[in-house]
Amino acid sequence: MKNITKSLPENLLCFSHLRWDFVFQRPQHLLSRFAKQMKTYFIEEPFFDAEEPYFSVENKQPGLWVCTPHLPVGLKENEVNDLLTSFLNNFLSQKDLEDFAFWYYTPMALAFTDKFRPKLTIYDCMDELSAFKFAPKELKVLEKKLIQKADIIFTGGHSLYEAKKHLHANIYPFPSSIEKEHFLKARTIKTSPADQQEIIGPKIGFYGVIDERFDIELIEAIAVEKPDWQIILIGPVVKIDPATLPKNKNIHYLGQKNYTELPAYLAQWDVALIPFMLNESTRFISPTKTPEYLAAGVPVVSSAIRDVVKPYGIKNFVHIANNKLQFIEAITVELNKKDKLAWLAAVDAFLANNSWDNTCRNMQELMLKTLNNKQDISIAS
After folding, report:
1. What is the pLDDT of residue 137?
2. 188 and 60 together in one domain
């Protein structure tokens, strides 16, 4: 008789290249939901800020702890990995690995976790990290090992799935989802946040990380061509020199905002942008902001990111633009549009079943199925 596993392991250890308090995106959405069923530990990359190494643990919500290694400056790579292995040894010393699932966002973590054998190993490949600026040279080698070790792999979009599906027998695409009830608030909010109140004129907005993927020259060109348009940019500037950002009077850098604040900003925008360059670092991305903008009821103009073109572009939910003139033309169309009800109804119908709750539930079902298949193989052997 088949012995069916009905529950996931009690604990989940996540190894992430992103910090929990950086930008609220895929890892935070998923793991905050997993934490309702599993004790979830989010292990960040180290801070090099300590005279003596230590491991800080902060309870962020019921069932979820953020764990951060603090290490001395100047350690060699092998010394860092030895300390991280030691931290994990101590953490797991009185625990049974049969009660654990390991969830990887970064293959780099395999350098200090490879010796451990949890009940389930998951690789949530949300981006092609090897194509990003300053990617470690070892990343591709470690990702190959992680793919071999993983019991199940999820990808952050369909294009990434197509690129990796031949590498693993148990791999599934899970594009960006939304928390609709959160972004629907933007449709009814009437007041603007203080730092946006004084900005007068059509508001063309973007929120997200401003990094090497962001098309600075495009933004500047639009600002020069349309000085009456107000371009609002929300988010941290990373991996690029802030001094290189354009300083036009109609470009407003409002800095990083909390996830809870975003609907209030979106409520006042006339058009939202996804102004990414087309290069190796954007080839496989699936921007979370696409369905979020749409759920807020804000028209979107995007560069031709593959996972935006399909499905959003081909369904005419999002304008796809390839250069400055096409961006300006699409924005102008939206600024002049009087009736958006038919578009909004079609968008709402398309997004009806798109939610992080559904994504999390579907992932959990696949994880349980994977555990049962592993158990069948173990019994058979």
Report:
1. 83
2. no
